[in-house]
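Bug report

Summary: structure tokens for Transcriptional regulator, GntR family differ between web form and batch submission.
Environment: batch mode, default settings.
Steps: 1) Submit the sequence below via batch. 2) Compare with the web form result.

Sequence submitted:
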Amino acid sequence: MYTDHCRQTTKEIVLKLSRIPSRKPLYQEVQEEILSLIRDWDEERPIPSEAVLSEQFGVSRSTVREALQRLENADVVYKRHGVGTFVRPQSNAIATAMNYLHGIERIIRSSGKEPSFGRHEVSVITFDEHIREVFSDERVKRGVRVVRVYLADGTPTLYAVSYIPETILDGDLESAAEKIERLGRAGESLFSILAAAFQHSVDYAVTRIRAVMPSDAIFAELNFSQSEPCIKLNQIHHDRDGRVLIYSEDVLDPEVFELIVLRKSIR
């Protein structure tokens, strides 16, 4: 059973992913440095050789090679055999790798766009049966709901509804909601708010990806075609001990977001 933010299509393909937190390996740090380096470069411009990048970043050539391979997998760069690596012509889509758990603001900013909120509402609610089942805790009856519409360079791109259980919020729920509201409007992500204000850190998430037809409410918020499916992410965020901290339902504009999944063969 799902809430009515989107109407379920008659057919769906479900992909469950365990997403790991951002404890960055060295190649990922190099990957982000290369992204920053080439962000404003012209398309088709050649990228410095592995030897040059290795010396520039102070890492091994194998680390640079791994970073470049990841960028190639993400269609950021491409290789010409015997010639070199070049900046690939890009679409306006916001690409994000699902292998790592990042906040939406960071994902939008990493694409070269400026994140902001078109809507940010925090309220105390009594959870319905579906939401209570997600948390698998008999003590959870109420909690905080956070509704956000994320903008990228002023364009609505994502509609997110997140539920936080009363059991991880200190003291009075109304006070907790006010704190989340205030810190959220200051630009803090839910992850950072939970960690800093309530001492609960998200360690990983299980994500369910579905194609759904947009409801009237979603159409009004994101203003894209009601005749085309949108992407819906149902995400359960856990701490290191497996406790559920946040349940979220995110609806993405497929014309704006591109999800990238790294899949490895089983040998």
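Above is the batch result. After comparison, the two runs are identical; trailing whitespace caused the diff. The longest helix spans residues 26-38. The helical segments are 26-38, 50-57, 61-73, 104-110, 129-135, 173-185, 190-198, 216-222.
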